[in-house]
Structure formats: C-alpha cells, structure tokens
Write a structure and sequence with these properties.
single chain, alpha+beta, minor pseudopilin epsh fold, five-stranded antiparallel sheet, 11 strands, 28% helix
Length: 186
Amino acid sequence: MPCHSSPQAPQRRPRGESGLTLIELAIATAIVSILVGLALPSFQNFAQRQRLEGAAAQLETDLFLLRSEAVASQETLRISFSQAAGGSCYVIHRGAANACQCGAQGVMSCEGGAEVLRGVFLATAGGVQILSNRASLVVDATRGTVSPTATMRLVSPGGEIRHVINIMGRVRSCSPDGSVNGYRRC
C-alpha cells in the first residue's frame, strides 16, 4: 500500500484551555479605554446639567412652599440668600430680613428669635451656585404677595437657569443662553 501523506490538521487547544490570549486581552482593554475616554466628557456635562436642573427644581418648589406655608399659617415668612465659605445657600425662615444666614459649610443660624424652617446649601464642590439680586424676600401672610420681586440665578459650568418671581409669587424660569433643555431662552 502506498503511503500517502495527508496535510496536517490545524492544532486545536485542548478542551480544558479556553480564554483569551494576552494580545486579545490587550486589544480589548485598549478599545474599552478609548470608549471610556470618549464618553467621560459627555457624562461629566450630563452630571453637571442634572445637578443644575435639580437645584433649580428644588428652589422653585421651595418658593411655592414658602408662599403656601405663609398663607396657610397666616404668618409672614421670608427667604434669604447668602454666600458662605464653601458655597451659597438660601434659608426659609420666620423673623427679620437679615436674621438668618448660612455659615461655613452650610450651617444655618438665626438670631433675635428668628427660626429656620428650611435651608439649602449648595457646596462649591458640587458645581452649582445660587445668586440673587435681593438678599431677602418676604411673603405677606394674608395676600400671599412677595416683596420685592427678584431674580435668582443658578449657575454651573453646565449652564444657567434663572427664576424670576413676581409680586403675586409666581415663578417664571428660563435659561439665558438657551443651553438648558426644557427651559425657554430669556
């Protein structure tokens, strides 16, 4: 019988040895690193915008709460804005216009018999800052009117949202440059 040589069959891995080679693992790691590097700036912008929108929604809710609480309790209430070491804040309180403020790291304090009902501190590290053209607003207990009218600005690297409160206590919100979705340009 003639001896025929057959082509060699490709070598296969033994059944117990499955997995990736070092080169396959290096390529997969490089691809994942590139994708993460591309997605990270978008995620950071998204996170900044979410913090900004969350702070704006909270302030708007607190302004409605302030007015509702003043009318329901038949008591004149205030909201005061201030800058403190490490951030900015607002305090809803009873008492005189400058009786309550926030100190370092958001510790709310009042003097002269004033009482804090609610306080919100926005840490500088969080990237959102609140600025107001008025230091304090008062809500009349019988009419629910707000005096004086004011513009509150919530500013972050992701954009700006403004809340304008009129004498009737209604809040109009907008984004000056139109950069925040869901808010009209102002």
